[in-house]
Amino acid sequence: MDRQRLSSIAHSHHPIAAPIFGVNLNRLLRRAGRQPAARVLDLGCGEGSWALQALAHYPDGHADGVDVSRYALERAAGAAAERGLADRLTLHERDARTYVPDGD
After folding, report:
1. Angle at 13 between CA 7 and CA 16, to 5 degrees
2. What is the 3-state secondary structure (H, E, C) of the chain?
3. Domains of the chain, with CATH numbers?
4. Is residue 86 within 8 Å of 77, Cβ to Cβ?
5. How far apart are CA 79 and CA 63, in angstroms?
């Protein structure tokens, strides 16, 4: 079993694998304002928790999630489908250091 799959399994109970609480992310999104057709870029998106939260905040927005873990991106895609957001989330399996928006 590869390292990314092990990490995905080990952290499955953490909705956001970063040192920030969801309440703080919501506060940040509120402060950013609600721009029509907002575009969100989530580098190192993991399972897409931040990107999905942003899409809930920006009802006309679109998000791009970039991560090296195929397993995390599969979970992100599933979560987006469950929430009806799959058409507004584009996932990219690659190192964030090499990602170029609209130059995929």
Report:
1. 80
2. CCHHHHHHHHCCCCCCCCCCCHHHHHHHHHHHCCCCCCEEEEECCCCCHHHHHHHHHCCCCEEEEEECCHHHHHHHHHHHHHCCCHHHEEEEECCHHHCCCCCC
3. 3-98 (3.40.50.150)
4. yes
5. 14
Where b means 16+ CB within 10 Å and e means fewer, 37-66 reads ebebebeebbbbbbbbbbbebbeebbbbbb
- Condensed to tens digits (0 to 9), the pLDDT of residues 42-83 reads 999 999 999 999 999 888 999 999 999 999 999 999 999 999
Tokens 């580098």 sit on residue: 43
- pTM (2 decimals)? 0.77
Structure tokens at 4: 């990314």
The tokens for 15 are 């909705």
Residue written as token pair 């040192």? 19
